Structure formats: structure tokens, C-alpha cells
């Protein structure tokens, strides 16, 4: 009976450790996906790959819809990216429209670490900005 209790306690300790490890791992890695909605305009930004390398192209998909899911056309889509709390500069991504409401932003992060992309769109004279974190390893 005592042995069973020890085994059960060990399993509980393991599962707590596993859960802790999982959540701490999740919070350390930026989400690949960021969403923001304001004034019936929804911006969705997605990092295309989990495996971004320094001095290689990083691709980001930007999708613009209204709250019912209809694709929106922007008069302007811009993306800059930089490393917060570092001085390696702010860079401009190349942004092109793929189809109505979908855009591809391409940048070349210069070094490993934690980056933040800032996407600004103008739709029907509304200007929205969304921050999208990503990691280069
Ligand atoms: Cu840097």
C-alpha cells in the first residue's frame, strides 16, 4: 500500500514537472500566429516557418478580413522588424499582395534572437498596427 502511494506521488510530481516544462517552453517561444481586430478589420499575421535562420529570408503571411471573414483590400501594407532592446536597427520588409486580402512580407533578419515585426495596414482610411514576435535561431 505504501509503495503504491509513493508511485502515485512520483507520477503526480512528474506530471506537474511536465506541465511546468511545457508552459515555460511555450512562453519562451513566440507564437507563430498573431491576430488583431479593430474597427471591423481583422489582421492575421503568420510566420511561415518555425526554422528561421540569420541572413536568410523570413516569410510572413498577412491576411486582412472583416469580422465576417470577407477579404479586405488595403491601400497600404507595411512591415518593419527589429530586435527589442537591441541596437541592430530597424529594417523594412518587402510586402507584396498575393491575392485580394492576402499579402506576403519578406525580411532578412541579420542575427539570432528575439525579433518583433510591426505591420501597419490602411483599410478604408483606418490605420491599424499589429506587433508580431518571432524568433531566429
Ligand atoms: Cu540584435
Tell me what you see in this structure.
The chain is of the alpha+beta class and 137 residues long. The chain has two domains: 1-30; 32-136, Immunoglobulin-like (Sandwich), CATH 2.60.40. It is 20% helix and 47% strand. The chain contains one helix and nine strands, in the order αβββββββββ. The protein has one helix at 2-28, and strands at 33-38, 41-47, 58-65, 76-82, 90-92, 94-99, 102-107, 113-123, 126-136. The strands form two sheets. It has a five-stranded antiparallel β-sheet, with no helix packed on it. Strands 5-4-8-9 form a four-stranded antiparallel β-sheet, with no helix packed on it. The longest helix has 27 residues, at 2-28. It is elongated. It starts with a helix and ends with a strand. 20% of the residues are buried. Residues 5-11 and 13-27 have low confidence and may be disordered. Copper (II) ion (CU) is lined by residues 83, 86, 88, 111, 113. Keywords: Plasmid, Signal. It comes from Paenibacillus rhizovicinus. Residues 1-18 form the signal peptide. This is YtkA-like domain-containing protein.
Number of domains: 2
Please tally the helical runs, counting DSSP H or I stretches of 4 or more residues: 1
**Helix fraction bin:** 10-25%
Which regions are unreliable across 5 or more consecutive residues at pLDDT < 50?
5-11, 13-27
Note the overall shape: elongated
CATH superfamily of the largest domain: Macroglobulin (MG2) domain
Signal peptide: 1-18
Keywords: Plasmid, Signal
Protein name: YtkA-like domain-containing protein
Organism: Paenibacillus rhizovicinus
Amino acid at each position: 500500500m505504501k509503495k503504491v502511494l509513493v508511485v502515485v506521488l512520483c507520477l503526480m510530481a512528474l506530471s506537474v514537472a511536465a506541465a511546468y516544462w511545457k508552459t515555460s517552453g511555450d512562453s519562451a517561444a513566440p507564437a507563430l500566429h498573431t491576430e488583431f481586430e479593430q474597427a471591423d478589420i481583422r489582421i492575421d499575421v503568420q510566420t511561415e516557418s518555425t526554422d528561421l535562420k540569420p541572413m536568410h529570408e523570413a516569410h510572413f503571411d498577412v491576411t486582412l478580413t472583416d469580422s465576417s471573414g470577407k477579404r479586405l483590400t488595403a491601400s497600404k501594407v507595411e512591415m518593419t522588424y527589429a530586435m527589442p532592446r537591441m541596437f541592430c536597427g530597424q529594417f523594412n520588409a518587402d510586402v507584396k499582395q498575393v491575392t485580394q486580402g492576402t499579402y506576403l512580407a519578406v525580411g532578412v533578419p541579420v542575427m539570432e534572437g528575439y525579433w518583433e515585426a510591426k505591420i501597419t495596414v490602411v483599410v478604408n482610411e483606418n490605420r491599424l498596427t499589429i506587433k508580431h514576435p518571432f524568433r531566429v535561431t
